[in-house]
Amino acid sequence: MSGPGISVVICAYTEDRWEDILAAVSSVHAQSRPALETLLVVDHNETLRERLAKEYKDSSEGSVVRVLANAGPRGLSAGRNTGIAAARGEIVAFLDDDAVAERDWLRHFAEAYADERVMAVGGRTVPVWASGRRPDWFPEEFDWVVGCTYRGLPRGRVRVRNVLGGNASFRRSAFDAAGGFATGIGRDGDKRPLGCEETELCIRLSRARPEAVLLIDDRAVIHHRVPEIREHFRYFRTRTYAEGLSKALVARSVGAGKGLESERRYATRVLPAGVARGLRDALLARPGGAGRAGAIVAGVLTAAGGYVVGSVRARRGGTTFRVPAVGVAARE
Q: What's the CA gap between 209 and 26, in Å, rounded?
C-alpha cells in the first residue's frame, strides 16, 4: 500500500446502533485502499465498550480494530479527540457510527493528500431515509439537518472553508498546529448544541496555517442512515434552532466574519433559490412544493432565533468550550 497510512475513527455511544456500528466497520474493511486501523471510541458506555471489545478481539493484522473509551468529557468532540490521540496513521479519517462508506472512500481521500498543502479532505454524505424516500416537504437545502450533504455545496473536488465532520479526514499535523475539536460545541447524545465543531476547527486551522488547503471531494461518498424520528418537522425545527446556538459559539470563537462567511452566501443565494423552486413546484401541482418553501423559511427563522439566544448566552458567559491539545505536544 503506497501513500499515507489512514486511521479511521468511529465514535459510538449507544447499543441501539449496534448493527449500524458493525456495518460501518465492515465498510471500512471493504475499502479498495485499506485503512491502517479502525478506532472505535465509545462515549462513556462501558457495556457497549466491553461488547465491542469482545466482538473485535480477534481482528486480524489486515483489519485491525481497536476499541477505546472516550478519555475526555462526554460528547462527540472529546470522543474524536481520543481517537486522534491514539491514531497511528498520518491521516485521521472520521466516519459516523450510523453510516457506511463506499468502496473507494479512502482512496479518494488519499489521492488528495498527494499535495502537501492539503490539510483536510471531506466527502459527500447521502441520506438513507428510514421510510424509504425523502419526505415531500423536506428541502435538499437543509439536508445538513440530518447530517448529510446539502444542495448548495460545490460539486467535484473543490476548496472549502470547512469540511463536514461525519465524512472527513485531516492530516495529523493539522491537530499539532491547531489543537483538537472544541468540547462544548459538538454533539452530546441528543443534547444541544448539536454541531459546528468541525467548522470551528477548520477556521482555527486556517488561521494557524494560512497556507493550508481544505477540500471536499464529492467522489468520497458515504451513506448515512436517517431514522424515522428525524423525518418529522419537530426534529427539523429543533435541529435548526440548535444550529443557530452553535453558530453563535463559533462566531464567538473565531469572529462573525469567518464564522458566518459561508452562511451568508447560503442564506442570500441558495435558500432564496430553494424557496423559488418550491413555489414553482406548488404552482405546477408537484407534491411538497409549498411545504419545502415553507420549511426553508421556517428553518431560517428558527436558526436565526437560536443564533440570537446563543449570542446572548455567549456574552453573558453562560456557555463555554475548550480547545484541547491532541497533537505532538499532548503526547510528549
A: 35
